[in-house]
Amino acid sequence: MKLKSSLIILCLAFAAIFLQLTSCTQLDTFEKNTSIPKNEWKTSFEVKGSFSITDTTSSFITYIVLRHTDAYKYNNIWLNVGIQPPGDTLHYQKVDLQLGTDATGWMGTGMNDIWEIRQMLFNRGVKFKKAGVYNFTITQIMRDDPLPAIMSAGLRLEKQ
User: Which pTM does this prediction carry?
Assistant: First the structure.
């Protein structure tokens, strides 16, 4: 009986140490989302943000994060994504973000009539060449102005 209680105490001690060590680890993730005023994204409205890179040897997976409602009338959205390295100019990339298909419906995760999608910006992880603060902008470049039923947009980085 004494051996059993000692074993239980030992297991609990190891579990407590494990939880303490794992809870102190830092997540190497950045995410910044901006709400779209009145859920109507005007072409003049820029989603802006900045993130800091200190590790230039690791790769980062970059995602566009977009939240929309069921009322959105297209299967995709065209975005102009700009990233500005420290001390450099803004470099733009046009992105065709697929949100769903007529056959399968909306992609991403949904709850009631709200859907969120995360799509990789590049097909692989990216190494940032310079350490420092990077700025980004995201604008919609669809024909509708304003573009209704878009709730928020943003950028997410995950260290590989």
Answer: 0.82
pLDDT digits (tens, 9 = 90+) for 85-106: 999 999 999 999 999 999 999 9
**φ, ψ dihedrals at 156, nearest 5°:** -130, 135
Distance CA 43, CA 155 (A): 18
**Cis amide linkage into residue 148, ω under 30° from 0:** no
**At the topology level of CATH, where does 28-159 sit?**
Jelly Rolls (2.60.120)
Our measurement of the distance from residue 71's CA atom to the centroid of its chain's CA atoms, rounded to an integer in Å, reads 22
Which residues have C-beta within 8 Å of that of residue 70, sequence separation ≥ 6?
106, 113, 114, 115, 149
Closest CA to 115 of 86, 146, 80, 75: 75
- Partners of 36 in beta bridges: none
Joined tokens for residue 144: 């509708």
What is the DSSP secondary-structure string of 37-63?
A: GGGEE-TTPPEEEEEEE--SSS-EEEE
